[in-house]
Amino acid sequence: MSETAQVVRQPLPVGSAGKLSGGWWGMMALIVTEASLFGYLLFTYFYLAAQTVQDWPPGGLPSLLIPGINTVILLGSSVAFWVGERRIRQGKAQSSIFGFIAAIALGSAFVAIQLLEWRNKTYSINSDLYGSLYFTITGFHLCHVIIGLGVLLLLLAWTMMGYFDHKRHVAITIGGVYWHFVDVVWLFVFSALYLSPYLHRG
Amino acid sequence: MAATDATQHRIEPLLERIPEVGRIPAGSAIEARLERIWETAPGWRGWLSTVDHKTIGVRYLVTAFLFLVIGGIEALFLRIQLAGPDMAFLTPEQYNQLFTMHGVTMIFLYASPVLSGFSNYLWPLLLGSRDMAFPRLNALSYWIFLFAGLFMYISFPLGQAPNAGWFNYVPFSGPVYNTGPNIDVFALGMVLLGISTTVGSINFVVTLFRMRAPGMTINRVPILVWGTLTASVANLFAIPAVSLAFFLLWLDRQIGAHFFDVANNGQPLLWQHLFWIFGHPWVYVVVLPAMGIVSDALPTFCRRPLVGYTAVALATMATMLLGFGVWVHHMFATGLPTVALSIFGAASMVISIPSAVAVFAWIATIWLGKPVFKTPFLFFAGFVALFIIGGMSGVMTAAVPLDWQLNETYFIVAHLHYVLLGINVFPVVGAIYYWFPKFTGRMMSEKLGKWSFWTMFIGFNAGFFPMHIAGLLGMPRRIYTYPSRMGWDEVNLITTVGSFIFAVGVLIFLVNVVLSLKRGAWAGANPWDAPTLEWAVSSPPPAYNFATIPTIASRHPLWEGRIEGEREHSRTRLEEGYLLMRGRETLGTSPIDAKPVVILKMPEDSYTPFLVGLFVSLLFVGLLLHSWTFTALMAASSCAALSVWMWPRRKLGQRTTGYRSASAERGGESP
């Protein structure tokens, strides 16, 4: 407890230096609260599914093909972004642009396929309980993907404007971890809505 | 050592430097420069754009107190109606709206924001920093709180205020039984307020881990910081539950979803789970920082450090941890399985252990100290007494069989008012008396202070203790009147008289605030001879807080060398420290042992928080009015304002400096 306070004299990084920046810590806290939100959404799903007297899901087991492909696409987007970020860390900001463009393209493909999947459903948010759950949960996730795509577009623009190099690119690190989070959340949503009915029925 | 380090690195001055150390004498030219760096522009520009945590803290306090007064007046209306049997002062619908808004106002718009006010003002001063981790987020948090408060009152003048109680149970709050805009205003307002609470909590959490003065290791932070930190971490986990519950309810009401719709396999009990998973931690959110206030301020008036610092800090966190596992005690009468009731009943009783640790620590501090009976001490001591009464009735209702008897009676109303007023309002008023000199530079009147305490304390007990008896006599909550033959007449009349005496006490306090603002005696930097860091700076503190970042060596930097048994070489440095004045700068330190790790660049004042807050709030207005184009427009405006806010800036070290370093030349292009 007791010592003479020492003033340290050594060089310290200045400003938003990677994971020393406030923004990185703030994003971690945001992810905690967002993860809780999805936790409560899935709690709602399983709570209502467990209490219902209907067949569950009411329309029979969901087809896994298109959502499965879409899952791979979204994970691919995360990988592409990770590659781009790695290029920046290596001091190759120009070539990172291709990684970010690929990430945005794959993310947009996910949104398009998800919207098609929505259109093919025979139920809607207000048709029955399952429809309410399905569209609310996937809708929450889709909103996050769209916001994430907006973030990625900004990051791409900033990279093209030459804002970042291997020393300073904290926006990429923070935006990137959000994008990875959105992708990981999808794995939970996918497991709950598409895979868990098979466990239950099997 | 410094010299060798400097030669080993190729220092790029914008990205890395050795922080300058020195002294800044009061009144020097260098101090004037620091003042210019941190000051807020005068006039409306500064008013809308300031990010100074002290200004934001005072705004939180003033706004929260306005809501306290509004909620209090609503309560007085309710008490007039209940003063005697068969009264017709209010219609049943008016009564419903008033008791709902009373609860909403007190619990959401007063109890937590007032503590955010103290913490916003005090945290950087307690921690030895120049601002919070995210000054602009801090401003956003306030604006959204203000707008959410106004939003929830938007339908009040139309006679369409929320009317289903502050916990808003379905199906009564659902689309079938509640067709007006009343509940939609509440639902959307709560989601909006949740944004404010969440960003505020993120700010506190990151501030604690990043912004402490060097040497302020984790076991040296004041208990108020522990309390607010615990509450903030809890908010991150709990707020999504209530925001989601209200959003799902809004979907049920406006889009035709079926989450709580029994006719279509929905479950009303889902509402209660989601609400109380949030609601019980929230109880601790509105009391733990207030308990922290007492743990820090009471020792000043006992002339000795808090007894059992470590135990109290751990008890604070233990209370919250257990607080996440007791939500079902609000649902004992809903027909859940007996096993669940037993587990949650037991957990609810266990929570009394950490609470008792804190109570005994306060009593021991008074016992072992030399109490000075100033007004703040009276409020803090009164708080301990009320906490014990409220805690006892809490343990009683944790017992499932007794709860079945007491549930939905005035006993619960008595319990929750003892807890919320006792543990929140009394410490808060005491804290205003305590920190008023720091906020304003003036002392509050002791004479009026003692009058306000005794009037409030007597009025409170006269008003709320008889409610226990009303509850034991079987008087249900939320009834707008009662017949005379029930035997509830006397207790209700006494309660009403007591509540008005209490209101007079609050009025004396407010008069004291106004008079002292104008005529209070000048306070020095440390009028109470208190031990903590906020008293090291002038009253009111300068815009930059600390001229040099201090280096901390103990829990009570201003009492060093005066405490028996303390090793003598424990020495905090307050005069000499890091200068950090190339623009707005402060020191970032490591999370546990507070070693300097980074020089943080702090943002200037900015309009973006106000604009983002405004656009987001208008977005909710759009949702309320079903105006989807307007909603989309506001969403786009919010995103645009956020992009401006987040735009990477060279000045803050967020962009490349264009400096050609050796590795960049080797490895690739430098744009």
TrEMBL record, chain A:
Q: Does the record carry ATP-binding as a key word?
A: no
Instruction: Cite the source lineage.
Output: Bacteria, Pseudomonadati, Pseudomonadota, Betaproteobacteria, Nitrosomonadales
Q: Which UniProt keywords apply?
A: Cell membrane, Membrane, Transmembrane, Transmembrane helix
Q: Which topology term describes how it sits in the membrane?
A: Multi-pass membrane protein
Q: Which PROSITE patterns does this entry report, sorted A to Z?
A: COX3
Which SUPFAM superfamilies does UniProt cross-reference here? Cytochrome c oxidase subunit III-like
InterPro entries (UniProt xref): Cyt_c/ubiquinol_Oxase_su3, Cyt_c_oxidase-like_su3, Cyt_c_oxidase_su3-like_sf, Cyt_c_oxidase_su3_a-hlx
Q: Which family does it belong to?
A: Belongs to the cytochrome c oxidase subunit 3 family.
Tell me where in or outside the cell this protein is found. Answer: Cell membrane
- Top-rank taxon, per record: Bacteria
Name the residues that span the membrane. Answer: 24-48, 60-83, 95-113, 133-158, 170-195
Q: What processes does the entry annotate via GO biological process terms?
A: aerobic electron transport chain
Q: Name one Pfam family in it.
A: COX3
The family database entries (CDD domains) matched by this protein are listed as: Heme_Cu_Oxidase_III_like
A GO molecular-function term, please? Answer: cytochrome-c oxidase activity
Write down what this protein is called.
Answer: Cytochrome c oxidase subunit 3
Q: Can you give the residue ranges of the Heme-copper oxidase subunit III family profile domain?
A: 1-198
Q: Which GO terms describe its cellular component?
A: plasma membrane
From TrEMBL, chain B:
Please verify whether the record's keywords include Membrane: yes
Keywords assigned = Cell membrane, Copper, Electron transport, Heme, Iron, Membrane, Metal-binding, Respiratory chain, Translocase, Transmembrane, Transmembrane helix, Transport
Q: Name one GO molecular function term.
A: cytochrome-c oxidase activity
Report the domain of life of the source organism. Bacteria
Subcellular localization: Cell membrane; Membrane
Q: What class of enzyme is it?
A: translocase
The UniProt record lists the Cytochrome oxidase subunit I profile domain at 38-553
Q: Give the protein's recorded name.
A: Cytochrome c oxidase subunit 1
Q: Which species is this UniProt entry from?
A: Nitrosospira multiformis
